[in-house]
User: What shape does this take?
Amino acid sequence: MGADAVVIRHPASGAPHRLATWVEGSVLNAGDGTHEHPTQALLDAYTMRSRLGRLAGLSVAIVGDVLHSRVARSNAHLLATLGAKVTLVGPPTLIPTDLRAAAPHEGVRGTGPEVSYDLDAVLPDADVVMMLRVQRERMAASYFPSAREYARRYGLDGPRMRRLPDHAIVMHPGPMNRGMEIAPEVADSARSTIVEQVANGVSVRMAVLYLLLGGKA
Assistant: This one.
Protein backbone atom coordinates (compact mmCIF):
# COMPACT_ATOMS: atom_id res chain seq x y z
CA MET A 1 0.00 0.00 0.00
CA GLY A 2 3.04 2.28 0.07
CA ALA A 3 2.57 3.43 3.67
CA ASP A 4 5.14 5.92 4.93
CA ALA A 5 4.68 4.62 8.48
CA VAL A 6 3.16 1.55 10.08
CA VAL A 7 2.25 1.45 13.78
CA ILE A 8 2.15 -2.19 14.86
CA ARG A 9 0.99 -3.84 18.07
CA HIS A 10 1.39 -7.60 17.91
CA PRO A 11 1.21 -10.60 20.27
CA ALA A 12 4.44 -12.05 18.86
CA SER A 13 7.73 -10.71 20.21
CA GLY A 14 9.88 -9.46 17.34
CA ALA A 15 7.01 -8.84 14.90
CA PRO A 16 7.85 -5.13 14.33
CA HIS A 17 11.47 -5.99 13.59
CA ARG A 18 10.36 -8.58 11.05
CA LEU A 19 7.92 -6.16 9.44
CA ALA A 20 10.66 -3.54 9.11
CA THR A 21 12.54 -5.90 6.80
CA TRP A 22 9.51 -6.15 4.50
CA VAL A 23 8.48 -2.50 4.05
CA GLU A 24 10.28 0.69 3.03
CA GLY A 25 8.38 2.98 5.42
CA SER A 26 9.04 3.56 9.09
CA VAL A 27 7.79 0.97 11.59
CA LEU A 28 6.74 2.04 15.09
CA ASN A 29 6.60 -0.67 17.73
CA ALA A 30 3.43 -0.13 19.78
CA GLY A 31 4.11 -3.25 21.84
CA ASP A 32 5.26 -6.70 20.75
CA GLY A 33 4.38 -9.68 22.90
CA THR A 34 6.26 -9.58 26.20
CA HIS A 35 9.28 -7.97 24.55
CA GLU A 36 9.27 -4.15 24.26
CA HIS A 37 7.06 -1.03 24.29
CA PRO A 38 9.48 1.77 23.35
CA THR A 39 7.11 4.75 23.16
CA GLN A 40 5.70 3.95 26.61
CA ALA A 41 9.21 4.11 28.02
CA LEU A 42 9.79 7.45 26.28
CA LEU A 43 6.62 8.98 27.71
CA ASP A 44 7.39 7.57 31.16
CA ALA A 45 10.88 9.11 31.08
CA TYR A 46 9.41 12.44 29.92
CA THR A 47 6.86 12.34 32.74
CA MET A 48 9.55 11.66 35.34
CA ARG A 49 11.67 14.53 34.08
CA SER A 50 8.66 16.87 33.99
CA ARG A 51 7.78 16.07 37.61
CA LEU A 52 11.23 15.66 39.15
CA GLY A 53 13.41 17.81 36.89
CA ARG A 54 15.95 15.10 36.04
CA LEU A 55 16.48 11.44 35.24
CA ALA A 56 20.15 10.89 36.08
CA GLY A 57 20.51 9.61 39.62
CA LEU A 58 16.84 8.85 40.20
CA SER A 59 15.95 5.64 42.01
CA VAL A 60 13.10 3.97 40.12
CA ALA A 61 11.27 0.89 41.45
CA ILE A 62 9.34 -1.10 38.84
CA VAL A 63 6.93 -3.28 40.77
CA GLY A 64 4.83 -6.32 39.94
CA ASP A 65 4.41 -8.56 36.93
CA VAL A 66 7.74 -7.83 35.29
CA LEU A 67 7.80 -11.24 33.57
CA HIS A 68 4.96 -10.37 31.19
CA SER A 69 5.61 -6.63 30.97
CA ARG A 70 7.08 -5.15 27.81
CA VAL A 71 6.76 -1.77 29.56
CA ALA A 72 9.15 -2.93 32.29
CA ARG A 73 11.73 -4.12 29.79
CA SER A 74 11.74 -0.92 27.75
CA ASN A 75 11.85 1.24 30.86
CA ALA A 76 14.68 -0.77 32.40
CA HIS A 77 16.79 -0.33 29.27
CA LEU A 78 15.98 3.34 28.66
CA LEU A 79 16.27 4.53 32.26
CA ALA A 80 19.63 2.80 32.68
CA THR A 81 20.83 4.55 29.53
CA LEU A 82 19.73 7.92 30.97
CA GLY A 83 21.49 7.35 34.28
CA ALA A 84 18.70 6.22 36.60
CA LYS A 85 19.00 3.34 39.06
CA VAL A 86 16.32 0.73 38.37
CA THR A 87 15.13 -1.87 40.88
CA LEU A 88 12.73 -4.61 39.81
CA VAL A 89 10.39 -5.65 42.61
CA GLY A 90 8.04 -8.62 42.69
CA PRO A 91 7.69 -12.28 43.57
CA PRO A 92 10.53 -14.45 42.23
CA THR A 93 8.11 -16.15 39.83
CA LEU A 94 7.40 -12.81 38.10
CA ILE A 95 11.00 -11.57 37.70
CA PRO A 96 12.42 -12.94 34.41
CA THR A 97 15.76 -14.68 34.63
CA ASP A 98 17.40 -12.55 31.92
CA LEU A 99 16.67 -9.32 33.82
CA ARG A 100 17.29 -10.95 37.20
CA ALA A 101 20.87 -11.57 36.12
CA ALA A 102 21.34 -7.76 36.07
CA ALA A 103 23.22 -7.91 32.77
CA PRO A 104 23.46 -4.65 30.83
CA HIS A 105 21.39 -4.43 27.66
CA GLU A 106 23.42 -4.70 24.47
CA GLY A 107 24.68 -1.27 23.49
CA VAL A 108 23.54 0.36 26.75
CA ARG A 109 25.98 2.06 29.08
CA GLY A 110 25.86 1.27 32.77
CA THR A 111 24.59 -1.76 34.61
CA GLY A 112 21.38 -3.72 34.52
CA PRO A 113 18.58 -3.44 37.08
CA GLU A 114 18.78 -4.56 40.67
CA VAL A 115 16.20 -7.02 42.01
CA SER A 116 14.27 -7.06 45.27
CA TYR A 117 11.46 -9.29 46.50
CA ASP A 118 10.59 -6.93 49.37
CA LEU A 119 8.54 -3.87 48.35
CA ASP A 120 8.54 -2.34 51.83
CA ALA A 121 12.34 -2.32 51.90
CA VAL A 122 12.58 -0.45 48.60
CA LEU A 123 9.99 2.29 49.14
CA PRO A 124 11.87 4.64 51.54
CA ASP A 125 14.64 5.24 48.97
CA ALA A 126 12.50 5.39 45.82
CA ASP A 127 12.03 8.60 43.83
CA VAL A 128 9.63 6.85 41.46
CA VAL A 129 7.43 3.79 41.96
CA MET A 130 6.05 2.33 38.75
CA MET A 131 3.30 -0.19 39.41
CA LEU A 132 2.61 -2.80 36.72
CA ARG A 133 -0.70 -4.41 35.88
CA VAL A 134 -0.99 -8.07 36.82
CA GLN A 135 -1.57 -9.59 33.39
CA ARG A 136 -3.82 -12.49 34.26
CA GLU A 137 -4.60 -13.18 30.59
CA ARG A 138 -0.94 -14.07 29.99
CA MET A 139 -0.64 -16.38 32.96
CA ALA A 140 -1.04 -20.07 32.24
CA ALA A 141 0.31 -21.10 35.66
CA SER A 142 0.02 -20.07 39.28
CA TYR A 143 2.61 -17.35 39.76
CA PHE A 144 1.33 -16.40 43.23
CA PRO A 145 -1.05 -18.01 45.74
CA SER A 146 -3.99 -15.61 45.34
CA ALA A 147 -4.93 -12.08 44.34
CA ARG A 148 -5.39 -11.21 48.01
CA GLU A 149 -1.91 -12.46 48.90
CA TYR A 150 -0.39 -10.58 45.95
CA ALA A 151 -2.07 -7.32 47.01
CA ARG A 152 -0.88 -7.83 50.60
CA ARG A 153 2.76 -8.24 49.62
CA TYR A 154 3.11 -6.17 46.43
CA GLY A 155 0.11 -3.84 46.23
CA LEU A 156 0.70 -0.12 46.72
CA ASP A 157 -1.87 1.11 49.25
CA GLY A 158 -2.12 4.24 51.41
CA PRO A 159 0.18 3.12 54.25
CA ARG A 160 2.84 2.01 51.79
CA MET A 161 2.57 5.26 49.83
CA ARG A 162 3.27 7.16 53.04
CA ARG A 163 6.59 5.32 53.35
CA LEU A 164 7.82 7.08 50.21
CA PRO A 165 9.92 10.26 50.36
CA ASP A 166 7.87 13.45 50.18
CA HIS A 167 8.89 14.20 46.58
CA ALA A 168 8.34 10.67 45.21
CA ILE A 169 5.80 10.00 42.46
CA VAL A 170 3.66 6.99 41.56
CA MET A 171 3.28 5.79 37.97
CA HIS A 172 1.23 3.12 36.19
CA PRO A 173 1.15 2.39 32.44
CA GLY A 174 -2.50 1.26 32.63
CA PRO A 175 -4.95 -0.22 32.54
CA MET A 176 -5.10 -0.59 36.32
CA ASN A 177 -6.41 -3.38 38.51
CA ARG A 178 -7.63 -1.10 41.28
CA GLY A 179 -7.42 -2.81 44.64
CA MET A 180 -4.85 -5.33 43.48
CA GLU A 181 -1.54 -3.76 42.43
CA ILE A 182 -2.68 -0.23 43.30
CA ALA A 183 -5.27 1.13 45.72
CA PRO A 184 -7.79 3.74 44.50
CA GLU A 185 -6.53 6.27 47.07
CA VAL A 186 -3.04 5.96 45.59
CA ALA A 187 -4.15 6.04 41.94
CA ASP A 188 -6.14 9.22 42.56
CA SER A 189 -3.61 10.95 44.84
CA ALA A 190 -1.53 14.04 44.13
CA ARG A 191 1.53 11.78 43.83
CA SER A 192 -0.02 9.91 40.91
CA THR A 193 1.12 10.78 37.37
CA ILE A 194 -1.25 8.38 35.62
CA VAL A 195 -3.37 11.04 33.90
CA GLU A 196 -0.21 12.95 32.93
CA GLN A 197 1.25 9.79 31.41
CA VAL A 198 -1.75 9.44 29.12
CA ALA A 199 -1.54 13.09 28.01
CA ASN A 200 2.24 12.95 27.58
CA GLY A 201 1.85 9.81 25.50
CA VAL A 202 0.02 11.80 22.83
CA SER A 203 2.79 14.42 22.67
CA VAL A 204 5.64 11.91 22.70
CA ARG A 205 4.09 9.77 19.96
CA MET A 206 3.43 12.87 17.86
CA ALA A 207 7.12 13.72 18.26
CA VAL A 208 8.16 10.22 17.19
CA LEU A 209 5.97 10.42 14.09
CA TYR A 210 7.35 13.88 13.30
CA LEU A 211 10.95 12.66 13.55
CA LEU A 212 10.29 9.60 11.41
CA LEU A 213 8.17 11.34 8.77
CA GLY A 214 9.86 14.75 8.73
CA GLY A 215 11.80 13.99 5.59
CA LYS A 216 15.26 13.77 7.16
CA ALA A 217 17.25 10.54 7.19
